[in-house]
Amino acid sequence: MATESFELKVLDVIEETADARSVVFEIPADAREAFDYQPGQFLTLAIPSDQTGVAARCYSLSSTPGDDALKVTVKRTSDGYASNWICDNVRAGDTLRVLPPSGIFTPASLDADLLLFAGGSGITPIMSITKAALARGTGRVVLVYANRDEQSVIFAAELRALAEQYGERLVVIHWLESVQGLPAPDQMRGIAAHFPTYDAFVCGPPAFMKCVVGVLKGLEFPRERRHQEKFVSLAGNPFGDVEEAAVAEAEVFEAEHEPEDAAQEPAAAGDPTPQGAVRVEIELDGTTYEYDDWPATKPLLDHLLKKGVPAPFSCREGNCSACAFRLLEGEVKMEHNDILDEDDLADGIRLGCQAYPVTDVVKGTYS
């Protein structure tokens, strides 16, 4: 079963840098509720493909809630089919098929002090969070933004304007490889150590995220104040109306890097799987849903959707975090996981689209 998609009109295409474009979408009057979103979330776009019919790609929103339009920002990569197609072909007046916003890379409170790390096009969700926190929150924002050179800085003018508008509430630290070299742990530690009580968010190429997250762990930032965003290309078709096929290219967050090895499922090989049906209790938006008939052969997400529960999801492949929930009791095993790391798993986070019961009772929450 696919989630409902929408045809969105392109209002504008903005050249941010030589290899990055922002695509601005009109919000349909009859779909405003479906496109309510939190800063840091993403849209899934259907990109036409001669090989697969549709190549589905996730792109973070660089607009912020309350804006009149939706905006995603796409950076061209040398072997990225989707990013090149968007940069070369999309024009104002076109329409693209889009799934509603998803993702959990969002601040729990916009009033918190935020320490934000972005590398290259990883600025996209970070920009949305920055603008929302400054406009609607009360805390301070420190943004560390790494790029190859000055010409690669996406949103350079907008960041200058925000710094002038918000004064001491926003500190922007630009890190240019052409001047300072690649970001190194000692250098990132020297920055992060000044803000030990801030909520940290990290987005960018895998090597950059590995560096920064390692620094935050070393500084003992607790798990609840340490967040990172990762995307892996979707091999299937979440739009649901063309034949699914494997996608040849493997873009990871539209970056010219190979993905890190994904954490494996928490249940060890050989763990018994209950026969028949098990009991599940799931809390979502303040409501607890209880069922005694979750088939052991069906993913949790499929069971909840069949029961009419509005459980969140996007890719259904284990390649995004839209369907993530937290275990409170029991255990599940995941068939596929390209997005959760060891810390996520240790914290009880699982992917609903890949979760099969290992115990006779499973309790969890989407909060």
From TrEMBL:
Keywords: 2Fe-2S, FAD, Flavoprotein, Iron, Iron-sulfur, Metal-binding, Oxidoreductase
The EC number(s) this enzyme carries: 1.14.15.30
PROSITE patterns, A to Z: 2FE2S_FER_1, 2FE2S_FER_2, FAD_FR
All copies of domain 2Fe-2S ferredoxin-type, residue ranges: 278-367
Signal peptide start-end: none
EC top class, as a word: oxidoreductase
GO molecular function, one term: 3-ketosteroid 9-alpha-monooxygenase activity
FAD-binding FR-type domain span: 3-108
Cofactor(s) for this UniProt protein: FAD
Pfam families assigned: FAD_binding_6, Fer2, NAD_binding_1
Iron-sulfur in keyword set: yes
PANTHER family for the chain: 1,2-PHENYLACETYL-COA EPOXIDASE, SUBUNIT E (PTHR47354:SF8), NADH OXIDOREDUCTASE HCR (PTHR47354)
Protein name (database record): 3-ketosteroid 9alpha-monooxygenase subunit B
Native organism: Nocardioides massiliensis
